[in-house]
Write a structure and sequence with these properties.
Helix content: 40-55%
Number of helices: 17
Number of strands: 13
CATH class of the largest domain: Alpha Beta
Largest sheet: 8 strands, mixed
Strand content: 15-25%
Structural class: alpha/beta
Length: 397
């Protein structure tokens, strides 16, 4: 019924008149990322001179989220915007069903790891996507760990000496996606498949928590990015971070004069899952004409085109989001001489998984951040922490 209503609205608005169409695109890409996005939008304009894209940087992700919340509430959202899955669940009724406007070949080409439905609707498509991978010091770790237990052995052997600035690994409390990856690898999940029960504190959840707590004994636990610690001269043996952090981590290692390499994550019992990071693109329907929605869909299809998603990945450290691109000659030729990007690609193909699409996931993630920090800092036993976390999730699910 919702799709029919949207189609009816668009019919009332009418087809696009000839002439210029202007759309707004809100994003959070700064620095080199923003420069690359601007290049792609200019290329789009060169190919589509009747479409003007007002590309508006809204600050970091936090600022973008708050501005989108206000804009949607006021009924004046942008035509197009980046957004995380847990934002999307807040304003589903304000979004366009993309399968009504995007070419079928574009939708069919999406990698299955990224193809998500919200209450049966496809209202977003992937854009700047990364994956969690392992960064390691090859001078300290000649062979990257392939299993949890190899990882724990390496981290334990390097140890922790705060006076000397030496740590086996490092964690950011604000990144609970690392815990969710361990949880998935252990065979667990936040909720049961039908969302009726909280399962995060079952045997799998406890196994993941105990493993994380073991690593945390030898870890630098800091809210700053690990790249900041490396640039300051701290020694971090091996750590989990996003592929999008590649440039920052490598630049930090170069500043510190130390080697740094990338490998797929250690696996557990053959499960090599890794949580996908990054945002998607969505089109808003309020206050938009059919011409604007069609123009925004055209821009999305352009950004997902093989040459453009490949160029974006090469320039930014994100990954191609379509089958045609990731298996295409351009990307395969590129990673043939880039072992780090090859490892990232292998990780995505081996076990990339997305965010829980529950309408209260944003609140759940806030709880995860709180309890992930408690776990990393050893504030209580893993069981007590997981049981307390489960109780709070149960209260809001």
């Amino acid at each position: 019924m919702r799709r029919i209503a949207i189609l009816a609205l668009l019919c009332v608005l009418g087809v696009a008149a000839s002439g210029q169409v202007k759309i707004s695109f809100w994003h959070a890409m700064s620095g080199a990322l923003g420069t690359t996005l601007t290049e792609l939008v200019q290329k789009f304009h060169d190919e589509n001179p009747t479409i003007e894209v007002d590309l508006i940087y809204q600050g970091g992700y936090g600022a973008l989220q708050q501005k989108l919340i206000a804009a949607v509430a006021a009924g004046e959202p942008p035509t197009l915007a980046q957004q995380y899955e847990n934002w999307t669940t807040l304003w589903l009724d304000a979004l366009v069903d993309l399968d009504l406007f995007l070419p079928q070949e574009t939708l069919d080409d999406l990698l299955p790891q990224f193809d998500q439905l919200f209450e049966g609707r496809r209202v977003t498509v992937p854009f700047n996507k990364s994956i969690l991978v392992l960064y390691y010091r090859p001078d300290l770790v000649p062979n990257p760990p392939r299993t949890w237990w190899e990882f724990a052995s390496i981290v334990t052997a390097i140890g922790k000496d705060e006076a000397k600035g030496v740590y086996g690994t490092a964690f950011r409390p604000s990144n609970p996606e690392i815990f969710l990856t361990l949880l998935n690898q252990a065979g667990g999940a936040i909720l049961s498949d039908d969302w009726s029960a909280v399962t995060i504190n079952d045997a799998a959840g406890l196994e993941a928590a105990e493993f994380a707590a073991r690593l945390a004994q030898y870890a630098l636990v800091d809210s700053a990015y690990v790249s900041d610690a490396i640039a300051k001269g701290l020694t971090i043996g091996a750590f989990i971070d996003t592929s999008a952090g590649y440039t920052y981590n490598m630049n930090a290692a170069k500043t510190a004069g130390v080697p740094l390499a990338v490998a797929p994550l250690p696996c557990h019992c053959g499960n090599c899952a890794s949580m996908i990071q990054g945002t998607n693109l969505a089109i808003f329907s309020p206050n938009q004409t059919r011409a604007q929605i069609e123009a925004a869909a055209k821009l999305i299809a352009f950004l997902l085109r093989e040459d453009n998603t490949t160029y974006w990945a090469q320039k930014t450290g994100y990954l191609p989001v379509t089958r045609g691109a990731i298996y295409g000659d351009a990307w395969q030729t590129y990673i043939a001489t880039k072992p780090e990007q090859k490892a990232m690609t292998e990780q995505l193909i081996a076990g990339g998984f997305g965010q829980l699409l529950h309408p209260r996931y944003m609140d759940m993630r806030s709880l995860l951040i709180t309890y992930w920090e408690l776990l990393l800092k050893g504030e209580d036993t893993p069981k007590a922490i997981m049981d307390a976390l489960a109780a709070e999730i149960e209260a809001i699910k």
